[in-house]
Amino acid sequence: MRVLSGIQPTGRFHWGNYFGAIRQYIALQHADEAYYFIANLHALTTVRDREVLRRNTQDAALDLLALGLDPAKATLFVQSDVPEVSELCWVLMTITSQGRLERCHAFKEKKSKGIAADMGLYTYPVLMAADILAYDSNVVPVGEDQVQHIEVARDLAKAFNHRYGEVFVVPEAKVMPDAARVPGTNGEKMSKSYNNTIEVFEEVKAARKKIMRIETDSRPMEQPKEPEGDHLYQLCSLFVDDAKRQTLATRYRTGGFGYGEIKKLLADEAEAFFAPARERRRELESHPDRVIEILTDGAGRARRKARQVLDRVQQACGLAYTNP
Ligand code: ADP
Ligand code: TRP
Predict the structure, then answer these.
(1) Rounded to a whole number, what is the distance in angstroms from the first to the last CA of the chain?
(2) Strand 139-142 to 74-78 pairing
(3) How far is the CA of 240 from the centre of ligand 2 (A)?
(4) Label partner for 14 (CA 20 to 30 A): which of 135, 188, 271, 272?
(5) Nearest residue by C-alpha to atom 11 in ligand 2
(6) Catalytic: which of 73, 110, 174, 264?
(7) Do residues 133 and 92 touch, judged by C-beta distance below 8 A?
(8) What fold does the segment set 202-282 form as a domain?
């Protein structure tokens, strides 16, 4: 089984990205083969500053490695280091209908808000299909929001196979469980776009400040509260074991506590939870060459695989002319 997923380097990873996506990638790295990449070509549709994009790409690599992505188990690389994918994207574009892309939500949303969308955003799902199909991926772990894009990849694989013969593996989406929908500091879904995030490697003091400012209701301290549905409880639950979670739920139901106390618990637990990763990140930061080496090695492995698939594609549709 070959697992593949990508994550965009559009900013520093937050708790939502970790519990909703990254944690599962790391858990799946024990598959026969796992490919994870930093989707810098996709990020180019929103990050227009070269220094920011470079820094985000480096930060994404450091974060993923520090959080436990093991380059001995998984192939980690940067999307643009595999040019075969962009070539495959063109071939797939020739069998993609315009209507199919117009219905995709990232584009539709921008258009409905009257924001000018470029061809990068419009063809975003085709590049994503190329990312997936270029490595004969079987399973693609993603958040709920990406399922529509995996459907596009499946449909394109089937359409191509129908026209040219069995060239592509038809991938399956593996959706992250609902439980991992992480709320932000205002109770809405945590997202960069809502300005309600707490970053995984946020400076400890700054993280504490954000935690202490998490919005809560103003019910009096004595009043018993139902933990389910309370976003502070949900956040605590991400970091503590079952026994601690049950104790916390009982405290909510008994009442007589202040939210400040729970926030302090959250800050302590989150700090302890990410402490080993923080230490690994510090260590990696002082060896930037090692990170470049990992990414270069990953790109080499990924390119070899993508080349094989692209050769098949070129043969199948008559592009292999001078080199049949
Ligand atoms: P953002 O909404 O901050 O821009 P992205 O869209 O870049 O985050 O998300 C990258 C990955 O992290 C996706 O797979 C997405 O499903 C997951 N993710 C983002 N926010 C959350 C969240 N609050 N809860 C669970 N998963 C999330
Ligand atoms: N679009 C995905 C996201 O925003 C990132 C991505 C790019 C991806 N290519 C992919 C995910 C291929 C899975 C497979 O989260």
Answers:
(1) 30
(2) unpaired
(3) 29
(4) 135
(5) 6
(6) 110
(7) yes
(8) Tyrosyl-Transfer RNA Synthetase (1.10.240)
